[in-house]
Please model this.
Amino acid sequence: MAWRDAKASRVRLLLFMASIILGIAAVVSIQLFSTNLKDNIKRQSKALMGADYIIDSRQVPTIRAKAIIDSLKPDASEVNFVSMIAFPKNGGTKLVRVRGMDGDFPFYGSINTQPVSAANTYQESGGALVDATLLLQFNIKPGDSIKVGELTLPIAGALKAIPGSTAISTSVAPPIVIPYRFIEDTELLQFGSRKEYQYFYKAADTLNLDRFEEIIDPMLDAEKADLDTHSTTSRRLGQRYDNVGKFLNLVAFIALLLGCIGIASSVHIYIKEKLKAVAILKCLGASRLQSFLIFMIQIAGIGIIGGLLGSLIGVALQELFPYILEEFLPFTVEVSITAQPIIIGVFLGLFMSILFALLPLLRTLYVSPLDVLRVDEHGAQEPKTVRLIVFTAILVFLFLFSYWLLQNAIYALGFVIATLITFTVLGGIALLFIKMIRKFFPKQWGFTARQSLLNLFRPNNQTVVLVVAIGLGTFLISTLYFTKDILLSKTEVGQTAENANMIILDVQSEQRDKVENLIKTKDLPILDNIPLVTMRMHRIKDRLVNDLLQDTTRQVHGWLLNHEFRTTYRNELIASEELMEGEWTPEVKPGEPIVISISDNLAEDAKVGVGDPIVFNVQGVLMETKVGSIRKVDWGRLQLNFSIVFPQGVLEEAPQFNVFTTSAKDEASSANLQRDLVAQFPNVSVIDLRQVYTIIEDILDKVSWIINFMAFFSIFTGIIVLIGSVRTSKYQRIKESVLLRTLGAKNTQILQISAFEYLFLGLLGSLVGILLALVSSLCLALFLFKEPFVPSSIPFLVFLPGITLLVLAIGLSNIQTVLRSSPLVVLRREG
Model:
């Protein structure tokens, strides 16, 4: 019976199936990709690092640290730092990361160069490997020269890839690899230079790296050095991409949820039409269970086939993810197919189809044989207790599924509550709209407009379902566009003379006046001349930093115990700072206690407050200070911010270097200044904030593209649900349209009635979705990002008319059968 009835209703059942296929495809493709990503990270962890483990230090290793490093016999080493370079061929300059390499690194993976031989010969030939993109940008080829500080080297090859780097990590400072023996000749490692020493090791297969790290890492921590193994690095990398996977899973889950709403709404109408047939079956002797199972088998079949088709599409789709995410991955993902996500997809298709169709299916159990003779537009109704049990089961499933995706009960509960609120608001607005139309029905309107409005609240209407489906899809993608605008606004760089767009770093004391004069000769303003003094924490309150390093139960965060702070001194707050606690001290006179100001994140991580003492080691001199104030710092601004600020009158005589900021009106003046600075002061580094902003915007565009790609699943599933729901309403509307034709209505009038109805639905659903997105994005801007919110016009100009027209087109396609055939033919076919 189930098979026969399904064959008769195959077109409509296919539409039900389409509602869930895309959601399953999204879940399966992301699950498969996440599995592949984790396997690849685990399998390629050594190639990602290029070694079994690395010891690194941000200063020249101490005697004890050097003894530990030497005793382990490093197989390769490097020193790396950020600096400006120049191309003598055309005078081009660029901020790069110089890597001075010694030894046969990497031990796993390879350095990808053009020509290929350059990776093996650059050490002996004394050449440089230069980032391939950088060579293209400045029209430089292997064989040309590069000037690194006071040293000029031939370019041995174009560097395409080196273990541990990604396209994003090298965007601001592309890598330049040179032989280690030439580093001293560059004369770039001067006082205040930001540098890192790394020692690479290849370990025996029998070495237990986790146990090795437990023993050696604390010893190195005490000497301001650090140990990283390939296994800990891969775990860290896995956790980073795990968060991305969780977000993508949630987007896929929303798409699946939309599909389930489509199933529930479509089955609701489908079963409502079948209630008369169920009553007849019961008159002929069919039991309640038999009549229930006929339709349960149909829905289960839809779920299994939909789950299988969705899984197969998901397998094909996940092949795209390595190409979509290649900019964000430091390795090539090798795709392999596993059975688990496919089994999960089929199970989800079956389980969610039945669960969300259960409520209308249960109605068949409560159909009385007497319903054959009754005329009741509401039909049989299941008891409220049964309805409550089904709703509870749906909410429990949503929570468990969310928990499986997020591995966090609070987040899962929050997601379920947020989903409920969104659906409730959309459904509530739809019901309110229906009530408003009923109460204020425009009787003075023309016949076609009045008839279309009546369709919105007469029996078998799809107003609530369509508004929820359209609204949720529009809400998701609009929120993504609005959030992107908020993120971009946080990185906006002004182009006025008051806003710095160039930062000049590592200016030594003896160079300060000359650099200042050079900037002025270029007719550029000196916006800031900021002195920087490097120091480390020696004692926090009553505990020595070295003791804290050995204490595994400490509450103080480990990062600041080894951190070399770059501090400054001034007598006033700047625009990116806000005083939270204590009093700002602008100046300290000789003999007075030294009162400093620290950032709120430093206060929290160091577990200190106003009045607490901190002793600093200022390049060998111990300095006792007291926390006088705590500042809230907006680290999102592209400008120089500091965790620690001293008052004037303390650090003026300490060894220091300076940072200048200026504003170049165009690219030409910026390039001109950089070229002359590099020529006269090779150790000085220049950051062009406009280039940084362009890079950040490009990265955010890529992230936004990925988010929008995933949101496509939700919006497209919403469209499928829309098609299914609107097409289902065809079977209620078609007889009404035929009767109207029989009574003399013209094709134009029938088209107008349908057009107005679907125009109202499309406009209401998309408008409510965009307005909800506007409210949620405003809350994000105010409470999370704490930024002013200027919404994008795209949702209003594109999504609102686009989705409305789509709804209109689908709705009008329903009525074509009526317009093309005579009323008698249609009534016979429908009967």
